Amino acid sequence: MGVKKKQSRRLTTRKRKSILKKLKVDQIKKIRSNKKMMAKVERIPASVLKTDEEIMQLEEIKRLSKIRKTEYEEKMRNTVKVVEYVEQIEKMISKCETVVEVIDARDVESSRRMDVEQMVIERGIKLVIMLNFVEYVPKDVVESLKNDLCKKVGEAMIRTPEENDWVEEGMKIGVFGNSKCGKNFVIEKISINSGIIMNVAMTVSVPPKEVCALSIIRGCHSLSDVPFRKYINMITEMIDRNEVARHYKICGFESGDEMLECICMEYGIDRDDENVKFLEAGNRFLEEFHRNKILFWKGIDGKVCFEFVSTG
Length: 312
Known about the structure:
Blueprint: H1 13-42, H2 52-95, E1 98-104, H3 108-111, H4 114-122, E2 126-132, H5 139-152, E3 157-159, E4 172-177, H6 183-194, E5 199-205, H7 213-217, H8 228-238, H9 241-248, H10 256-267, H11 274-290, E6 294-298, E7 304-308
Parallel strand pairs: 1-2, 1-4, 2-3, 4-5
Antiparallel strand pairs: 6-7
Helix pairs in contact: 1-2, 10-11
């Protein structure tokens, strides 16, 4: 009996066009739905006096409408990105004999792309999963993450940038990973440590598996492209609020919005539009994570830990 040929995962032009057409139709339906909702709101003439409760209800409808629109646009962008990066991955695989996936050791779960890993393994290409940013994660956690990955992806080699036993002279490699995961830094570090100049045929940036609190902290998404207040609130639910207040030298707070308001007051952020003001405060809040003044990591038990670095 002949070996059954594995079905190609590559998207045909027809399939790609079908996906994009469906997205366009969905977008039109969403716009019409929002227009109908706003039309109902606007039936009451502006000259008619409204109670405080009615005004609050109208404001809430408008706020929820904006959130739905932002979330839909985010979903649409991510779907289009999937179509684009799958084609790029196919191209990369065809050019390389070894593929390196660079993932963030602080957030292995959302920085891994298991769909791409499977594509590489099915083609018989050597896969090396590279854990980056291990210096910001406790050593015992790094070891447990490596052991867990070995069990889940037995066909792949699990390494850190300091481990170069897989590197060979003249090997042609492809590299993929999320934005901000340090793909170029990792390759440069491996070249220095091994003394071998890496022959990188192609590098592909892929989006995280999903938008989550940690992918926001890692800087994979611009706050202006997501419902940022929702994710800032999620982060404040996970982190020690008293430590945050001490670190940013702000007063105590109970929610993400309260924290953003406190940051605005402390750092003199003043804008007419509250969303614009809070967006700027949100970026100021995340700066401390990007500068490694607040460390974070997620263990195999799913628990997210934070460590505040002393500012002296």
